[in-house]
TrEMBL record, chain A:
Residues 330-349, 524-549 are annotated as: Disordered. It comes from Paracoccus tegillarcae. It comes from the Bacteria. GO terms for cellular component: plasma membrane. This is Heme ABC transporter ATP-binding protein. GO terms for molecular function: ATP binding; ATP hydrolysis activity.
UniProtKB/TrEMBL annotation, chain C:
The keyword Calcium does not apply. PANTHER family: GUANOSINE ABC TRANSPORTER PERMEASE PROTEIN NUPQ, SUGAR ABC TRANSPORTER INTEGRAL MEMBRANE PROTEIN-RELATED. GO terms for molecular function: transmembrane transporter activity. The lineage of its organism: Bacteria, Pseudomonadati, Pseudomonadota, Alphaproteobacteria, Rhodobacterales. One of its GO terms (cellular component) is plasma membrane. It comes from Paracoccus tegillarcae. This is Sugar ABC transporter permease. It comes from the Bacteria. It is found in: Cell membrane. It holds the Pfam family BPD_transp_2.
UniProtKB/TrEMBL annotation, chain D:
One of its GO terms (molecular function) is transmembrane transporter activity. It comes from the Bacteria. The keyword Membrane applies. This is Sugar ABC transporter permease. Its main location: membrane. PANTHER family: ABC TRANSPORTER, PERMEASE PROTEIN, GUANOSINE ABC TRANSPORTER PERMEASE PROTEIN NUPP. Keywords: Cell membrane, Membrane, Transmembrane, Transmembrane helix. It is found in: Cell membrane. It comes from Paracoccus tegillarcae. GO terms for cellular component: plasma membrane. It is a multi-pass membrane protein.
């Protein structure tokens, strides 16, 4: 451990200059010191991982390298040459490419337009587009990065959007590729596919910096790894010489249990009975095609699937806010009572009154009002609760005292309920939402992507709480693209594909491989081995109905 | 020291505020006297301005525009020793002189001239905001026109319903062109700043325009048939001259009293034919002796000809 | 999808139907009316395209009115003083550009509120034009009337007279198309030009990108600030031409507040057009047509009832609401519009 | 966590901005060949130097409070209500109809009825744009602009053809009956035996405006509806998730907004002119936008901004009345104040923040 705190080279031959060398980089955002005197050395032709808790300063550091932010102090050497990176253009010219945590794509532009933006060949677009089309075809073949160049970004799945970002960097002939949490939005298959590409790039001599929260990925693919904590670089080590446990401890500053223990389920009465649920969105696309399932009290039903196969619509429909203009049919029974699917009694408010709690997939645009104070967010969705009213006014004291309690129980940091939600890190934001929904003690908890972009410490905590709720005899519907999460939390697993449930499995009796096949739309009977090789999302695009394109 | 208050249009409105200003300036030039003047800035200021002027001892205080009527009714009794003059409105108070003009008579003459100048038997009228005062102009004009050409046609447009109606020369120009395209060859504009656009478009289109309030003949010499002048300047001049002895009561500035007239000067004398001049003189005499009565729209909100 | 493209085609369809029906009913008046509509459309179109550049780049601009007013004043003043409409046009552009610069300073450099800045610019123009007018000419804010070369005259296209006799096309060419000020043709040409710039050039690509997602432009190494300044500069130039046309083309001089709300109508047209150049042409033409219709038929007699002039004057506004409510779908503004680009909080 | 203390942000920044605006205004005044000092003293003297000036300043302030609050409430629901002008005009019609409908025995009875009338018509005028936005997706900015024009047309028609006493030149309604005349603040002062603001139009509506500020504050930050309005304004998907109906909030927020704008008519129509005239609103609807934005969409800010604009209006009026400075100068000064305090505020804030950061660093060391 002792030697680990010294930044040291990736590969033994120290004669060659490092691809990247950062010295004493500091950066403050107002009063927040995001980076403190950071040193980092990344050798050529290696994959270097960077890990750290939410808000540790990883994205900031990489953005500085990419010329997006200007550092307050420090120097940057690229391939041994000192370089002042004033803007991203300089970084691009120095061969640095970056795939941001939040993609920097223009939603209503085509893939091609996004690719050439900023590196057009001349004042006219046509020649640039034609050239890019050719190059893109080559790159696609070379790296198996297929995307339709004429599709607009908003029509693409997140996985494909990420491909566009990678293609953007490759099109700019990047030698050094930075990926900020690339797998946060990917399915296991997609992530594997990405790693194969990264390995290919490494083989070509390119250098890759990979930011991730997933220790498994670090162990699997990186050559060396750096750990950041609270704006500081706390360690840089060879991956081969460390372990997940050690990294987790370096990151969080304490021991972390990576696998949660949970007792066997003890299911009771059916809480939710869903029959033949169908939903056609306002563009006429059938998003749910006859979904039926039960969830019993004291049980976690996990829904696995590639994102975009109807999980979002299912959760929104159960939560009481299907997209405007969509038509729904089927029945939902909650504790034996029929729930309205249309009309004023089908809204989220009524669902909450019925005892349905909901942690939405998108905490930033749905689960929280980012400009509201944390304590106000604690009442969000429950603001009409009688306990929060006093006469005509709202009882803010009651809300604040609840907020204090939740912050304490869920260890939300900083412990300041008056801060606006946007000032919390992603993990802590998620804790606020989860606390709000779980503490309400709902009969049924809908929880979507509970740990997306959340650091290890917080994941552990949130998982524990979900299991506790189940053990208290409540029903939980869990939707996640993380198969690990599904497998370790669920008592039963349903796999969704193209608006249908392809099959149900017990976690003890299934494997990642089998679930992967179901997620790709391969049903139990036609279990053909060759279809497994194709990344699932490639296939489902073709099978979507015409109206979608 | 006399005082003059202009209405919201401002003293350079190319219209009656400006005419009032001319009267005051002339008075100052001829007598060497000085006077106070104010321009309104908002509705609520009317009372403020009146009171403040009265308190500073200004006498008489002349104001232009019917919008002062209501306020003056309220303020005048509080300052019995001050004389007030209001133009375009009757206020019945012992210390107020109300000056009203018979715009319908002047417009009647303009209508006769337009009818005689028109070759297409179609003429146009363009008003600013659609309010009663402007209908008074419109109605007089139409009566005069029909008295010569009973079968002829008067096209009527109003500019708008917001204050912009008085300041939209572009719209004025388009309205004039629309009327020209319907055959109008003489267009009478009673629309403030909008009228400038009307007269411009008429001149550009080679037709004849009729100005209003002040003598606007000089704007487009040769294209201006005449201007229906309303001698607000005389009214102000007279009031200033009368000073503190300003006579209370209603003062009707009609054709007879030279309160309204059609302007004939060097700029348009070539357009005024001898028959036209005769017809004007005749009509003036008839109106004066009462054998021709020009209907005043304001009396019953209707116009006998349409 | 099919429904949406139908909705997009609706404005052109409405516009063309009005024209065709009108011509069929009363060809003579219709041609004059449509010609008038083209003139009325021109300032709206220029201002609308101005707003399009600005808003497509992510800078909202409710100051179109003020810029046009300032341009009208500067154009009239300089045209009067120099006797040249072209110098007036340059001055108009200059006047409008200086307000654009203020807007840029406030909303781009200092990341201020774009709406407030726009409101301020409208007030500023409204006050300054009259103040300067009084100072220079002493006519209560008016400029003296412009004559001769100080105004933009009407351009007669070749063969206009010769072709006038040809049935149908002849009158359309000689009366509708020919005989406008050069600025009208410039405005109409600006539509395909804008389309071409926006969709066929590098600048256009970047401009649209910066209005949708400035971070994408920034991470591509292009200056967001410079792009946005370029956009508002174009906006200033177009507003300048619009104002100059009002004062030195359509009328012969400046009258205070002479823009009379056209900047706001242009803004409405921009939303109507869904921020697209051809849409802008048809939306503003629709406004022009409605106003021209109201001008031609001031007291529409429907037989059983005569619509009073007040309502004929308000007709363009009423119909706009009805059309918006009934036919044109949701207009989605450029996503980054109205928000200053802030990298570091 | 903040870059500088709150007091600096809330007080120092606007004050410096205001100072800058005044400095540039002084340059403008110099440029037109007048004396800035005379202008300033005339304005301050005329607006704040006497109870008389205050009376007018507060009268205008009252107007701007209502329109400012109207814009503010809609703004919290992410609705940009440019229609205050039309809503206030229609509010005037509502007030006039109520006042003329009935020979009111006492103002205390007439006032609540007129308030309802004004608010109702103002709200009705906002309802259509709101409903169209919520249900049909018509952009509220366009529809409210259009409704301003339409309101002008309606008012013009009603005044000329229906409410105007026969034979009157003036497109205005008849005078309201005696029983509707609201007590002026000067009358109230007389009761207390002092003479204050004699012959100024400020009336008890001023207190209603202040109460409205407080009530709006309660509404937005203390009630469930306010919570829902703010949540909807910040994130529509969020609102859906929380079970807040976008249609309901859009319509309610605009109804409140239009109602507030309509209430302005109590002040100018019922309190001041005591009859309905054509252009009674006189741009207060538009100034409301500036007031709300400069007041940072907080009722207290709205109050201060309204006071500032009231001062500018009255001081400017005095300037135009008693000096040779044209009244348009005031519009320029207003523009500069809006520009510097509302849009260029970061020009002041950024350097200030740097100073405070540097000071803090030094303390830390
Ligand atoms: N643009 C910005 N302006 C102000 N503060 C910022 C900005 N970006 C990041 N910060 C702050 O800087 C700190 C480091 O943020 P950063 O995004 O680098 O963390 P991270 O390690 O990437 O976290 P995560 O794992 O959640 O992505 C955080 O406290 C964050 O709130
Ligand atoms: N009403 C119209 N009349 C003529 N051409 C049109 C019309 N509407 C759009 N166009 C043109 O058709 C082409 C395709 O339009 P499209 O809707 O795809 O624009 P877009 O690039 O998607 O715009 P945005 O980026 O705003 O979504 C564009 O070049 C556009 O200018
Ligand atoms: Mg990050
Ligand atoms: Mg599109």
């Amino acid at each position: 451990m002792a030697e680990a705190t010294q930044p040291s080279g990736g590969r033994p031959d120290t004669a060659a200059p490092a691809a990247i060398e950062l010295r004493g980089i500091s950066k403050a955002f107002g009063p927040v010191q995001a980076n403190k005197n950071i040193d980092l050395r990344v050798e050529k032709g290696t994959i270097h991982g960077i890990i750290g808790e939410n808000g540790a300063g990883k994205s900031t550091l990489m953005s500085i390298l990419y010329g997006f932010y200007k550092p307050d102090s420090g120097e940057i050497m690229v391939n041994g040459q000192p370089l002042t990176i004033a803007d991203s253009q300089t970084a691009i010219r120095a061969g640095i490419g970056m795939v941001f945590q939040h993609f920097k794509l223009v939603q209503n532009f085509t893939v091609l337009e996004n690719i050439i933006l900023g590196v057009e060949d001349g004042p006219m677009l046509r020649p640039s587009l034609a050239k890019a089309r050719g190059v893109l075809k080559q790159l696609a073949e070379e790296y198996e990065l297929n995307v339709d160049p004429d599709e607009t970004i908003e029509e693409l799945s997140v996985g494909h959007q990420q491909r566009v970002e990678i293609l953007k960097a490759l099109y700019r002939e990047a030698d050094i590729l930075i990926l900020d949490e690339p797998t946060g939005v990917l399915t296991p298959a997609e992530a594997d596919h990405l790693f194969r590409i990264l390995e290919g790039l490494r083989a070509e001599g390119k250098t890759i910096i990979l930011i991730t929260h997933k220790l498994r990925e670090i162990m699997e693919i990186t050559d060396s790894v750096s750990v950041m904590r609270r704006g500081e670089m706390v360690a840089s080590v060879q991956t081969a010489q460390t372990s997940p446990e050690e990294l987790a401890e370096l990151m969080v500053g304490r021991k972390v249990i990576l696998n949660i223990e949970k007792a066997a389920a003890n299911p009771g009465q059916a809480v939710l009975e869903v029959r033949d649920l169908r939903l056609v969105d306002d563009e006429g696309v059938e998003r749910l095609r006859g979904i039926s399932f039960d969830i019993r009290a004291g049980e976690i039903l996990g829904i696995a699937g590639v994102s975009g196969n109807g999980q979002t619509q299912l959760m929104e429909l159960l939560g009481g806010y299907p997209e405007k203009g969509s038509k729904v049919s089927g029945t939902i029974h909650m504790n034996g009572d029929n729930l309205d699917l249309t009309g004023t009694k089908s809204d989220a408010r009524t669902r909450r009154k019925r005892g349905i709690g909901h942690v939405p997939e998108d905490r930033q645009t749905e689960g929280l009002i980012m400009d509201f104070a944390a304590w106000e967010n604690v009442a969000f969705g429950y603001h009409d609760k009688p306990a929060y009213q006093s006469g005509l006014m709202m009882n803010n004291t009651a809300i604040k005292s609840d907020a204090e309690k939740y912050f304490e129980d869920f260890d939300v940091r900083p412990r300041n309920t008056n801060l606006a939600a946007r000032n919390f890190s992603g993990g802590n934001q998620q804790k606020i939402v989860v606390a709000r929904e779980i503490e309400r003690n709902p009969d049924l908890l809908l929880i979507g992507q509970p740990t997306r972009g959340v650091d290890i410490g917080a994941i552990e905590f949130i998982h524990k709480r979900i299991v506790e709720l189940r053990d208290a005899g409540k029903a939980v519907l869990l939707v996640s693209v993380e198969l690990d999460e599904i497998l370790s939390l669920s008592d039963r697993i349903a796999v969704m594909f193209d608006g249908r449930i392809m099959g149900e499995r017990l976690p003890s009796e299934t494997t990642t491989g089998e679930l992967g096949l179901l997620m790709a739309g391969v049903t139990d009977t036609e279990n053909t081995p060759d279809s497994a090789g194709i990344p699932p999302e490639d296939r489902h695009v073709d099978e979507l109905p015409e109206g979608r394109a | 020291e006399p005082a003059l208050i202009f209405d919201l249009g401002g003293k350079f409105d190319k219209s009656f505020n400006e005419a009032a200003n001319n009267g005051a300036v002339r008075w100052a030039e001829e007598t060497g006297g000085s006077y106070k003047e104010l321009e309104m800035q908002s509705e609520a200021q009317r009372e403020q301005a009146l009171r403040r002027l009265a308190e500073t001892g200004a006498n008489p205080i002349i104001m232009t525009g019917f919008a002062f009527g209501d306020v003056l009714n309220k303020v005048a009794p509080d300052y019995p020793d001050t004389k007030f003059g209001i133009i375009d409105m009757v206020v019945e108070q012992p210390n107020v002189q109300s000056v009203v003009f018979t715009e319908e008579q002047g417009s009647y003459l303009a209508g006769i001239m337009a009818a005689m100048a028109s070759e297409t038997d179609t003429v146009g009228f363009i008003g600013g905001m659609d309010i009663p005062l402007i209908h008074k102009f419109e109605c007089g004009f139409a009566q005069g026109f029909k008295s010569v050409k009973p079968e002829g046609n008067v096209l009527i447009n109003y500019t708008g319903t917001t204050p912009a109606a008085w300041n939209d020369p572009v719209k004025g120009g388009e309205l004039a062109k629309a009327q020209i395209s319907q055959g109008a060859d003489v267009v009478y504009a009673a629309a403030g700043g909008t009228g400038i656009g009307v007269l411009q478009a008429v001149a550009d289109g080679g037709k004849l325009g009729v100005g209003v309030d002040s003598n606007q003949n000089h704007l487009h010499p040769g294209s201006m048939l005449t201007s229906m002048v309303k001698r607000v300047d005389n009214a102000v001049f007279d009031a200033f001259t009368a000073g503190a002895d300003l006579e209370a009561g209603v003062k009707v500035m009609d054709l007879k009293a030279d309160g309204v007239a059609v302007a004939i000067d060097d700029d348009n004398k070539d357009l005024v034919t001898a028959e036209m001049q005769t017809a004007i003189d005749e009509a003036t005499a008839q109106i004066a002796d009462g054998s021709v009565a020009v209907h005043d729209y304001m009396t019953d909100n209707t116009c006998p000809v349409q | 999808m099919g429904l949406n493209s139908l909705k997009d085609a609706l404005t052109p369809i409405i516009v063309l139907s009005i024209c065709v029906i009108w011509v069929l009913l009363d060809q003579n008046r219709a041609l004059d009316g449509i010609e008038s509509a083209l003139r009325l459309m021109t300032p709206l179109l220029l201002a609308c395209l101005a707003g399009l550049y600005s808003e497509r780049a992510g800078v909202f601009d409710i100051g179109l009115e003020g810029k046009m007013l300032m341009a009208a004043f500067s154009a009239a003043t300089v045209a009067y003083l120099t006797g040249s409409a072209w110098l007036g046009l340059l001055a108009g552009i200059g006047g409008s550009l200086s307000l654009s610069l203020i807007h840029g300073l406030a909303s781009i450099t200092f990341r201020g509120n774009q709406l407030i800045s726009g409101v301020a610019i409208n007030f500023l123009a409204s006050g300054l034009t009259v103040l300067l007018g009084i100072k220079i000419f002493g006519l209560g804010g008016r400029t003296p009337a412009l004559v001769g070369d100080a105004r933009f005259g009407d351009l007669n296209l070749p063969f206009a007279d010769a072709l006038a006799g040809v049935p149908l096309l002849g009158p359309i060419y000689s009366r509708l198309i020919s005989g406008h000020s050069i600025l009208v043709y410039m405005a109409i040409l600006a539509v395909p030009l804008t389309w071409w710039v926006l969709y066929r050039t590098r600048f256009g690509l970047r401009l649209r990108a910066v209005g949708e997602n400035p971070a994408s432009v920034d991470t591509a190494g292009i200056s967001v600030t410079r792009l946005r300044y370029a956009a508002i500069a174009i906006c200033g130039i177009l507003c300048g031409v619009a104002g100059a046309y009002l004062a030195t083309g359509l009328s012969a001089g400046f009258v205070k507040e002479m823009t009379a709300g056209r900047g706001f109508i242009a803004l409405a047209a921009l939303i109507f057009a869904k921020w697209r150049p051809w849409g802008a042409l048809f939306a503003t033409l629709l406004f022009g047509l409605l106003e021209s219709l109201a001008n031609q038929y001031p007291n529409l007699d429907l037989g059983f009832v005569t619509i009073p002039s007040m309502f004929m004057n308000a007709l363009p506004y009423i119909l706009t609401v009805i059309i918006l409510a009934g036919f044109v779908g949701r207009a989605i503004p450029p996503r980054a519009g109205g928000e200053p680009y802030v990298k570091e909080r | 966590m903040d870059k500088m203390p709150k007091w600096a942000d809330v007080i120092l920044t606007p004050l410096i901005s205001l100072f800058l605006a005044m400095a540039i205004s002084a340059l403008v005044i110099l440029a037109i060949g007048e004396s800035p000092w005379v202008a300033l003293t005339t304005m301050v003297e005329g607006a704040l130097g006497s109870s008389y000036g205050w009376g007018y300043t507060l009268y205008y302030t009252t107007n701007f409070i209502f329109t400012g609050l109207a814009v503010m409430v809609a703004y919290h629901a992410a609705l940009f209500n440019i229609g205050g002008e039309g809503q206030a005009a229609m509010g005037g019609l509502g007030v006039a109809l109520v006042c003329l409908a009935f020979p009111w025995p006492h103002w205390a009875l007439a006032l609540p009825a007129a308030m309802i009338g004004g608010a109702l018509l103002g709200a009705a005028w906002a309802f259509i744009p709101a409903w169209l936005q919520a249900k049909r997706g018509s952009h509220i900015v366009i529809t409210t602009i259009m409704f301003n024009f339409i309101a002008a047309a309606v008012l013009n028609y009603v005044l000329v053809n229906m409410l105007r006493p026969v034979g009157s030149m003036d497109p205005a309604s008849a005078r309201f009956p005696e029983g509707t005349h609201l007590p002026k603040l000067s009358d109230i002062a007389t009761i207390f035996g002092t003479e204050w603001g004699k012959n100024t139009p400020v009336n008890i509506t001023f207190f209603i405006a202040i109460a409205a500020c407080f009530l709006v504050w309660l509404l937005i930050w203390r009630t469930r509806l306010g919570y829902e309005i703010r949540a909807f304004g910040k994130s529509e998907p969020g609102a859906m998730y929380a079970g807040i109906s976008p249609v309901r909030i859009t319509v309610i927020a605009m109804l409140i907004s239009g109602g507030l704008a309509g209430l302005m008519a109590i002040n100018n129509v019922m309190g001041e002119s005591e009859r309905l005239v054509l252009n009674a609103v006189e741009g207060a609807g538009f100034i409301g936008i500036a007031v709300a934005l400069m007041g940072r969409n907080h009722p207290f800010g709205v109050f201060l901004a309204a006071l500032l604009f009231g001062f500018l209006y009255q001081g400017g009026g005095e300037l135009a009345l008693w000096t040779s400075i044209p009244r348009e100068l005031i519009i320029v000064i207003q523009a500069l104040v809006i520009l510097f305090t509302g849009a260029l505020d970061n020009m002041v804030r950024m350097p200030l923040e740097r100073i405070f950061m540097a000071l803090r660093k030094r303390e830390d060391v």
